[in-house]
Amino acid sequence: MTSFSFEQIGTIHSPYKEKFAVPRQPGLVQDGGGELHLHAPYNQPEAVRGLEDFSHLWVMFIFHQTMDGGWRPTVRPPRLGGNIRTGVFATRSTFRPNPLGMSLVELKGIHCQGQSVILQLGSLDLVDGTPVVDIKPYLPFAESHPEARAGFAQHAPKADMPVEFLPQAESQLAKHAGKYPHLRRFITQVLGQDPRPAYRKGESAERDYAVRLLEFNVRWRVVGSLNQVMSLDED
User: Fold this and answer.
1) Which of 24, 38, 60, 125 would be 43's cystine partner, CB 3.0–4.6 Å?
2) Which CATH number fits domain 10-137: 2.40.30.70, 3.30.230.40, 3.40.30.10, 2.40.340.10?
3) Residues in domain TsaA-like (predicted)?
4) pLDDT tens column, 1-16
5) Torsions phi, psi of 56, nearest 5?
6) Bridge pairing between strands 10-13 and 74-75
7) How far apart are CA 6 and CA 171, in angstroms?
8) Residue 76 burial by CB count (10 A; 0-12/13-18/19+): exposed, middle or buried?
């Protein structure tokens, strides 16, 4: 079999500091944008000349946090409740023969200064530090097919799980409102998608969770069908 090698061209900077709670797809969390920092020798303004004329990009990246787990011929998609096995090539599972992923993201701007070339991106589904191996412009005429069908993900997942902030979390939101004016909305949209593992979603017992978002360790409790945010502790 033929093997190939790739060069990392850049790194993603995003508010998601760990894999847990990263949205299943881009565009689901309004304030979940980030940046792509290009590395030398690809950090040249000439390399992105004309890219500003495109509104969206395909970002090709490496599933670096799960690549050591190898591939699996069948996986359990979360959208099917985590109980039904489907062929890996019929899913977007991270456990692939080659740990390659692709994500369609909005290009909000390009910043070039000295040796720095940074692409400012809209809503992401990528963890902070994700290695990027290529980017390509999105072509609406060729890649937008409204009549296309999807086996088990024809529509966006529900993101309506209620979220409330307990007094300590409310106080911390107020403290950081100057730097993060949309922090409440960001956390609400992330938790509103119920990031728990699929096998946990039917549980009736209360359970505490935590996730690192931005510079915070967000702690919350699931009570029935409600998320209660207890605290936003600084890392």
Assistant:
1) 38
2) 2.40.30.70
3) 6-147
4) 788 999 999 999 999 9
5) -135, 155
6) unpaired
7) 47
8) middle
Tens-place pLDDT, residues 25-72: 888 899 999 999 999 999 999 999 999 999 999 999 999 988 888 888
- Domain regions of the chain by residue span: 10-137, 163-234
Q: How far is CA 156 from the centre of its chain?
A: 14
Q: What is the mean pLDDT of residues 210-222?
A: 96
Residue 100 clears pLDDT 80, i.e. is over it: yes
The torsion angles phi and psi of 80, rounded to 5 degrees, stand at -100, 20
Q: Which amino acid is at 54?
A: F
Contacts of 157 (CB under 8 A, 6+ apart): 24, 28, 79, 193
Amino acid at 143: E
Compute how many other C-beta atoms are within 10 angstroms of the C-beta atom of residue 220: 25
With a threshold of 0.85, does the pTM exceed it?
Answer: yes
